[in-house]
Design goal:
This protein is an alpha+beta fold. The protein is built from 14 helices and 21 strands.
Length: about 550
């Protein structure tokens, strides 16, 4: 679909009659009912608003799809609950020294890997030194100089500099710090290990079978360390190729629960009215979603800050919210989202929709119109979400309205990951990231030099490198005073919003849809990564 000949008033992917209803709260958001006594048995089928992962477990990240599949098998040391409080998982306590340069971790006893081996401190030492520090946490654990295991259930961390407690716990409860078994990985390549497709963990679910292109089957871990859990007999994560198929599966009961905006916002009201489906926005407190525009610093024109700033004035973020997201979101102001009560500030440079100003700034940058065109760019839209593809079409029109010729490529997940994060084959990319409360490393790694890891998804693919930015993030990692950290976070937001190598455009409102009899599927601060050990079906 070409939109270059349409005005913004004409540009419309679908009827927007539902915008006012959704935005104004015209329909209720019923909670998933809870009862005191869980029932045992049954099979729960889950999915999300995207597609099949490249591997069931991807060390260092890989996006939301492998995060969902791996966290049913592999566990973390800590997790954040729905009240944004840290809760023990494989670690029972994490205690700092007075100077915050040493932490003592006490591990849970009686935990076994799915193959029967004992989980102990050596596993955690291995993960800190061979998995988290070099791969998944990166710069966040740069100051970690020593990891020891004085006994089988104690780990001691030593840092070269003070390390804030909230920062460290956020890392250990983070999306990427899953604990893998030392006895199966030690001495072998972690990133490409075939075991990543048949993981062995300590979680409530064991790997059963992966039918490529369809689903992954999990079996109940009868020896799980949390007594009597999981309640379900089986868990299936299945993928549908399009939102309409997910909606139909929810209506028929074939699909039990669907996370992270599984259908377009326009369909929510219709599904709720069937009486078979309920909707909930809880469970995304530590996983706020955004859609981004990423500018490749290796490419002509967009590598210049003044050009990037000019192009942002050509984009109407409120129009994107209203038309593409049906009012379920808000224009993003900075990489720190308004939902982040720890660090949010609105005192940052902004780029109001003003095509005339965009044109004037491009003129001033030495890029005047010549025969109706200033220059050309290749926009790659990662079409793992329907909205990303629509946004690519809108960006094409918006930039062409100010004289920038656009070649638009809307590509599937595998191609998008390769072109954006592997080959850096784009001028502007439409992608996504999640932003938790703690900024380092999940948010900051899009802006730091250390975040440039060729082939690593959802990192610094733009190639942006700034000594000032690197210094700010380093200070965020060592400052233990909460108020001082807030000031540093504000400085980070200002610099990121000035240099704009990657720009969040919309703070997306995330939601879950589920069958009415499904229980305990929206607990936790990042529901897509919850283990579902306490989920059950009220049959």
């Amino acid at each position: 679909m070409s939109t270059s000949g349409l005005s913004r008033r004409q540009f419309n992917f679908r009827s927007i009659s539902g915008v006012a209803l959704a935005a104004s709260g015209g329909w209720a958001l019923p909670s998933f009912a809870q009862t005191a006594t869980p029932k045992r048995g049954g099979t729960l089928v889950a999915t999300w608003g995207g597609l099949e992962p490249q591997a069931l477990f991807v060390p260092g990240g890989g996006g939301s799809s492998p995060f969902q599949t791996s966290t049913k098998i592999l566990e973390r040391l800590l997790k954040l609950d729905e009240k944004l409080e840290f809760q023990p998982v494989l670690a029972e306590t994490i205690t700092p020294s007075a100077d915050f340069k040493q932490y003592t971790i006490t591990l849970r006893k009686g935990v076994k890997w799915h193959d029967g081996a004992d989980f102990d401190a050596k596993d955690v030492v291995y993960n800190f030194l061979q998995h988290w520090k070099p791969i998944s946490a990166g710069i966040a654990l740069k100051a970690l100089s020593k990891v020891t295991a004085p006994d089988s259930h104690t780990v001691v961390l030593t840092f070269d500099q003070p390390t804030p407690e909230f920062f460290l716990k956020s890392i250990l409860a983070g999306q990427y710090q899953l604990v893998v078994p030392r006895h199966l990985y030690e001495g072998k390549e972690l990133l490409t290990n075939p075991l990543n497709n048949t993981p062995v963990g300590t979680g409530p679910w064991k790997y059963g079978q992966w039918v490529r292109g369809s689903h992954v089957l999990y079996a109940r871990n009868a020896s799980y360390w949390s007594a009597n859990r999981p309640y379900l007999d089986k868990l299936i994560i299945r993928w549908w190729g399009d939102p309409a198929s997910r909606a139909a599966a929810l209506e028929t009961g074939e699909l039990s629960v669907a996370y992270s905006n599984p259908v377009p916002a326009r369909d929510i009201d219709r599904l709720v009215k069937t009486g078979k489906v309920v909707v909930d926005t809880r469970g995304y407190e530590n996983s706020a979603w955004t859609v981004t525009a990423e500018f490749n610093q290796r490419r002509e024109h967009v590598k210049r800050k003044e050009v990037r700033q000019a192009l942002l004035h050509a984009i109407n973020r409120q129009f994107i919210v209203d038309t593409i997201y049906f009012g379920r979101g808000k224009p993003a102001i900075s990489p720190i989202f308004s939902s982040n009560k720890q660090f949010y500030t609105d005192d940052v440079p902004r780029y109001a929709f003003d095509p005339k100003k965009a044109g004037a700034l491009l003129d001033a940058a030495g890029l005047p119109l010549k025969d109706g065109k200033r220059f050309s760019v290749n926009v790659v839209a990662a079409a793992w979400f329907e909205e990303n593809a629509k946004l690519g079409q809108y960006i094409k029109q918006a930039l062409e309205d100010v004289g920038v010729e656009v070649k638009l490529d809307s590509v599937d997940r595998a191609t998008a990951l390769k072109r954006i994060y592997g080959d850096y084959d784009y001028d502007i990319a439409i992608s996504n990231f999640t932003a938790p409360l703690e900024l380092v490393p999940t948010v900051t790694q899009f802006f730091t030099t250390d975040g440039i890891v060729k082939g690593a998804a959802f990192r610094n693919a733009t190639g942006y490198s700034s000594k000032d930015m690197d210094a700010l993030v380093s200070q965020l990692m060592t400052e233990t005073n909460p108020k001082a950290r807030q000031k540093l976070a504000a400085d980070f937001a200002k610099l990121a919003s000035t240099d704009v190598p990657i720009v969040p455009l919309v703070e997306m409102e995330s939601f879950t849809l589920a069958g009415k009899k499904v229980r305990n599927v929206t607990r936790g601060a990042n529901v897509q990564g919850e283990s579902l050990d306490d989920a059950w079906i009220d049959s």
